[in-house]
Design a protein that fits this description.
elongated, 2 domains
């Protein structure tokens, strides 16, 4: 039966099929081999019900993932086993995105338990962080900025807590091995960083400063650091009055850090 003419297959994987899939995941020697091998083993099991094989899949006979379904517990266990195995290469996030399109559908079946998947820490023993000289200055400047916000607005203020929480969350992300164990950090701006990871994924840790706005109702004016007042966009209402800035001209700029790929 041609692959793309196969009837819908919706069933649990057998214990032996699960064992074969997990064995292939455990023995993979590269991220590409891991993904291809797991997908091949999974559909080899399901295609057997149709009389087709994985080798029958080609440009004319495409495999439609939505034609197949396995219980949610098995689906989740296989995806977790793949992404956990990918920790060795820091590609778990990328493979997880690929699997959304490659995995069969899933359905709830309380009678099918989650298969037992051995937990093995595949991360490398050492995470190499290479931080440029300029980046170390940025990290110090970010910490100093957070401390200045605490001194200006108080350590119980929302302004300080938002900045403190976001900065330390992003700083902890730099030590994560989920994107590979070789990470290079360089300067991206006075309070921002550019990060290249061992998996090839790059991202920025960027500071988003709050605009200094007029707080009087009906006025959209914003202030420059020199005190000059101007509209934030063409046609924005700027009233004729003594403007009240949302934070003082001589105060550190409130804001938060975020992750941008």
């Amino acid at each position: 039966m041609p692959v793309n003419d196969a009837r819908r297959i919706s069933r649990p994987l057998t214990a032996e099929e699960i064992k074969t899939i997990l064995a292939g995941i455990g023995s993979a020697t590269s991220s590409a081999e891991l993904l291809h091998g797991a997908v091949r083993d999974l559909y080899t099991a399901l295609l057997a019900d149709t009389g087709a094989t994985f080798d029958d899949v080609d440009a004319e006979h495409r495999l439609r993932a939505t034609d197949y379904a396995i219980p949610t517990a098995q689906w989740q266990a296989i995806v977790k086993a793949i992404t956990d195995r990918a920790a060795q290469w820091g590609t778990g996030a990328q493979l997880g995105l690929n699997l959304v399109n490659l995995m069969p559908s899933s359905y709830d079946d309380p009678a099918v338990p989650a298969p037992a998947v051995p937990t093995v820490d595949r991360r490398p023993d050492v995470h190499h962080l290479q931080v440029s000289r300029e980046a170390t200055d940025v990290i110090a400047a970010c910490d100093a900025h957070v401390q200045a916000l605490g001194q200006q607005y108080g350590r119980e203020s929302e302004i300080y807590l938002d900045a403190f929480t976001s900065w330390h969350h992003q700083l902890a992300r730099l030590f994560s091995m989920g994107l590979g164990a070789d990470t290079r950090i360089t300067k991206d701006g006075p309070l921002s960083l550019f990060v290249s990871t061992g998996s090839g994924f790059v991202f920025g840790v960027l500071f988003h400063g709050a605009w200094r706005r007029c707080t009087i109702d009906g006025c959209a004016a914003v202030f420059g650091d020199d005190g000059a007042v101007y509209p934030p966009y063409s046609g924005a209402p700027v009233a004729e009055h003594d403007h009240a800035p949302s934070y003082p001209l001589d105060a550190p700029q409130p804001g938060q850090w975020s992750f941008h790929s």
